[in-house]
Amino acid sequence: MKRIHHGLLAAMLVTAGGAVGCGEAVPPVDAAPWWEGLPYASEMVSFTPGEGAGYGEQALPDVVLGPPQGKGELAASLDVLSLGDGGEIVLGFGDRVIVDGPGADFVVFENPFYADGDPEQVFAELGEVSVSEDGETWVHFACDSTPDDAPPYTGCAGWTPTQEYDALEHPTLSLELTGGDGFDLADVGLSRARYVRIRDLWGVGATPSQGFDLDAVGILNAE
């Protein structure tokens, strides 16, 4: 079994930005996002970048809010925020509350993919996931993150590809539809959570894309 670490490839680091042309509507600054009402993180509470971070920061907070921009099992999305070595981020869900229900209760989306479609050759960057109801007391999921081990990385985020799907057509999420790494509140003895914190564990990659590349967080069971 083989595991391959990855940062964003150097050729991917520069993306073309488009300017608003004549006749194009410029949305109001306070316009609601197109995904409003869908079960995803809606606020960035805090972000503490680690060494080597920088990719995606210019697009904060939008780049980590709302649905993921998955590319499936064979490609990595560039719509991400690199946390840097040991960097961490806290996301909230507004009025929504994650609750303990059947199976996984929320899902974390990174941008791993399988080399040649082989799940044993996963480009992975792992993160530790913690949850809190009040934003002060945190409980973390035990993560089997030994770098020399091959997948599965039970309890960790950042190793299951995010699938391509239409978030408006699928307002109810499932791991079968979305991909990503699912987490069950029962595993940490909680019945509810309002905040999710993700901390980079491996710090792999090169500046400015070092560390865990966060795409989004979605709710599977909500109050």
Radius of gyration: 17 Å
The portion of residues assigned to helices is under 10%
Regarding CATH, which class?
Mainly Beta
Shape: globular
Strand sequence of the main sheet, in spatial order? 2-4-13-9-10
Q: Please provide the count of β strands.
A: 15
Rounded mean pLDDT is 89
| CATH 2nd-level architecture | Sandwich
Distance, first to last CA: 40 Å
Unreliable parts? 1-22
Percentage of β-strand residues: 15-25%
Number of domains: 1
According to CATH, what is the topology? Jelly Rolls
Q: Give the structural class.
A: mainly beta
Continuous helix count: 1
**Strand-and-helix sequence, N→C?**
EEEEEEEEEEHEEEEE
Largest sheet: 5 strands, antiparallel
Organism: Lujinxingia sediminis
Protein name: Cell surface protein
What is the topological layout?
Blueprint: E1 2-5, E2 43-48, E3 81-82, E4 88-92, E5 98-99, E6 106-109, E7 113-114, E8 121-124, E9 127-132, E10 139-140, H1 175-178, E11 181-183, E12 192-193, E13 195-200, E14 213-214, E15 216-219
Parallel strand pairs: 1-8
Antiparallel strand pairs: 2-4, 3-14, 4-13, 5-12, 6-11, 6-15, 7-8, 9-10, 9-13
Verbal overview:
It is a single chain. Strands 2-4-13-9-10 form a 5-stranded antiparallel beta sheet, with no helix packed on it. A 3-stranded mixed beta sheet has the order 1-8-7, with no helix packed on it. A 3-stranded antiparallel beta sheet has the order 11-6-15, with no helix packed on it. The chain is built from 1 helix and 15 strands; from the N terminus they run ββββββββββαβββββ. The N terminus is likely disordered. By secondary structure, it is mostly beta strands. β7 and β8 form a beta hairpin. It has one domain: Jelly Rolls.
